[in-house]
Write a structure and sequence with these properties.
Blueprint: H1 6-40, E1 56-59, E2 69-77, E3 80-89, E4 92-101, H2 113-120, H3 132-151, E5 157-160
Antiparallel strand pairs: 1-5, 2-3, 3-4
Length: 168
Amino acid sequence: MAKMGNKMITLCTVAVGMIYTAGYITTESPKAEVEQPSQNITESTPQPKAPSSTSDITTKKVKSTYKDGTYNGQGANHIGSVAVAVTIQKDKITSVQITDCTTSYSQSYIDDLPQQVVDRQSADVDVVSGATRSTEDFQEAVQNALLQAKQANVSYKTQNTGSVTGNA
């Protein structure tokens, strides 16, 4: 076996270090994004209003995860795509329908997956042997629909920019 030169050893070391760093950044970033909103959400409490010329900001806490409605999602890869419609009622997944399936395999391979989503209240379903990519497309479609339902239900801020003046 030939001896590696110092330049090659240095290059390999830098490459491995960069890959490790990229993986660390990728896995740590979502944690920070998930933790941050929970710190900023507070329940509003009524406070007496005093004359003020500054803006009043009230943050309201939303207790449910999803907003009621039907949301569409799609998942795709090189073998085709799967589209779904996910219905949310009272913060629960009540129905999932496959609205379009253009994968290499028949939709019948993944017809049992919508019921698993309703039963588990999650996009985490069993992978169908022989239709792994179709299953992944289905999971991605459900995750996209649930993300839309979450984004429709995010807490909101109301801002009063008017000034209050008066005589006491």
